[in-house]
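Many introductory courses stop at the sequence. We go one step further.
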Amino acid sequence: MSVALPQWLDSFLSIFVKGVTMTVPLTIITFALAMIIAVITALVQFANIRGLKQIARFYIWFIRGTPLLVQLYLVFYGLPSVGVLIDAFPAAVFVLSINTGAYAAETIRAALEAVPAGQLEAGYCVGMSYLQIIRRIVLPQAMRTALPSLGNNLISLVKDTSLASTITVAEMLMEAKRIIAVQYNALEIYLYVAIIYLAFSTVLTKVQRFGEKKFGAYQKRENT
């Protein structure tokens, strides 16, 4: 025998389930792809590879200079006019990845440039190749420096996934709109959405601080 839940709890759980089954996977997949894009873009600029560096700068300039919502519309609603059809979820992953990747690339580039040039020279002195120096010496130090800012990018990404509802991705905000269309209690439902996003962001903030402490302790051990 099933027990009927109170309406407010049923609505809250319905939205929360969408958060766990759609918003969280969307965030994880997107951030993983964004980090790959960001690292490659940052390394291309750091290595000063002519031609590729200009492409990287153009990519960052365009993405940072246009609204995320417009980018979503361009891919999901605009590309079909030229025969390119992308389902809602892959379109959201693609756009959110290249958007987050552009911002994260600048963070990583700055962190790479903050690594003392003597680190590269020391690597050459012990017989390492350029790629080995980047992989074993420069990139690990840069990523530790970039960690706080990348954590902020991740938290922002969690909230940005709400825009995926505009291209019909059935995440939390879309579920909230569905419930409101039936119950006509917008204030209550949107408050639930805000609370759930706040909970997700709070958890990520705690994880970020834990990671910073761990890396800080690791750096202290290295310096002693």
